[in-house]
Amino acid sequence: QVQLVESGGGVVQPERSLTLSCAASGFTFSSYGMHWVRQAPGKGLEWVAVIWYDATKKYYADSVKGRFTISRDNYKNTLYLQMNSLRAEDTAVYYCARKAPCSTSCYAVDYWGQGTLVTVSS
Amino acid sequence: QSALTQPASVSGSPGQSITISCTGTSSDLGDYNSVSWYQHYPGKAPQLIIYDVTNRPSGVSNRFSGSKSGNTASLTISGLQAEDEADYYCSSYTSSITWVFGGGTKLTVL
What we know:
The complex is a heterodimer.
Chain A: E1 3-7, E2 10-12, E3 18-25, E4 34-39, E5 45-51, E6 58-60, E7 68-73, E8 78-83, E9 92-99, E10 109-112, E11 116-120
Parallel strand pairs in A: 2-11
Antiparallel strand pairs in A: 1-3, 3-8, 4-5, 4-9, 5-6, 7-8, 9-10, 9-11
Chain B: E1 9-12, E2 18-23, E3 36-40, E4 47-50, E5 64-69, E6 72-77, E7 87-93, E8 99-101, E9 105-109
């Protein structure tokens, strides 16, 4: 079955960097686009970034553009989120999620991981 | 990239039906049949329950249904059950090739 397991979260000081990873299994990772979505404490879901299946296209939320970089390694079946210049408002649970295939829906997010918590604090 | 607008909370008794609205703009929800709905139990992974406005993934109860009119989408849950108590989020693709979520609605089953 589809499994997405995030790692790399933790406590980091403001303006520092952190890289999240998401290990994918149970499907052909190289055939699917992937998202990062986050949820700040007590808040709703916020879309962060998407990367196409072949990494040719990447798009970001305005709130992270220029600071975060989404990438993937299709040989290692792993998705990444490089986060630079972190701010207190980046504190959140970060979810890795699979973009549904267009044969189903070009727009839906069909599987999610359990998330990893990032806390930005001095 | 403003969030879609959802009511913060809704409630209903077992067996009743409830509807959660989700309002966007002509640049997102109004322009694409791309609305998805997610059920989220705190501490768990969100689950897709409706995609492309009206479609249910395999395995999702037919008590969940979706619709859209103009810039507003709706999720209806019929025959409410205690297990439906969760947070619900709508989402839409946008003309900027981004995605946007609603603020979330907490459903309480009385």
